[in-house]
Amino acid sequence: MLGPAAAIWLGVASDTPVDREPTRAEAAPVDDVAPPCCVEVVAAGANQVAMTAAPGEPATVQMASRWRPIDMTLPQGVASERGLQVKTILAARAISAEFPQIRQIGGVRPDALRWHPNGLAIDVMIPNPTSAEGIALGNEIVAFVLRNAKRFALQDAIWRGVYYTPEGARGGAYGHYDHVHVTTKGGGYPTGHEVYLR
């Protein structure tokens, strides 16, 4: 694991003559190397590539690539996070980041059921929810939260009369035709020291 101040510099130099193809061992593409978490490969720029040759020697290509840290933190999204529990905040932020067309996510509110008052649920409001585009967007959001069920500690999602859980879905009179309701198992209330990652 890399430390926070670690930087890895990759230097590639070759003794391969210019007039022949390099072997796979001499020229492994960067795609064959999986970068460590939270970094990306920055290719060598024009000022980092040089052809060098000593008198009477074949030319060699020298270039440098490097890893650059990627900020993996999720910024606060469109939902008010006041009163939400940590897994619910994570789900709200991730949905905001993944679906920038979402402009409103409701959270804590009075309700006869415990999920919204206890910060366990959010309502992702769908623009034009009865249009084909709105329905498709709601479907995409449900698919997204189900793919991330473990990460969000997902309890359920409700959209267009269907109740979805990580174990499956069932239809019925569940309503929710203008928003996707997402319930998490909470994870406790934030302390202020949480970091929410993509």
Automatic annotation (TrEMBL):
Residues 81-178 form the ARB-07466-like C-terminal domain. InterPro entries: ARB_07466-like_C (IPR058593). It comes from the Bacteria. This is ARB-07466-like C-terminal domain-containing protein. It comes from Mycolicibacterium hassiacum (strain DSM 44199 / CIP 105218 / JCM 12690 / 3849). The lineage of its organism: Bacteria, Bacillati, Actinomycetota, Actinomycetes, Mycobacteriales.
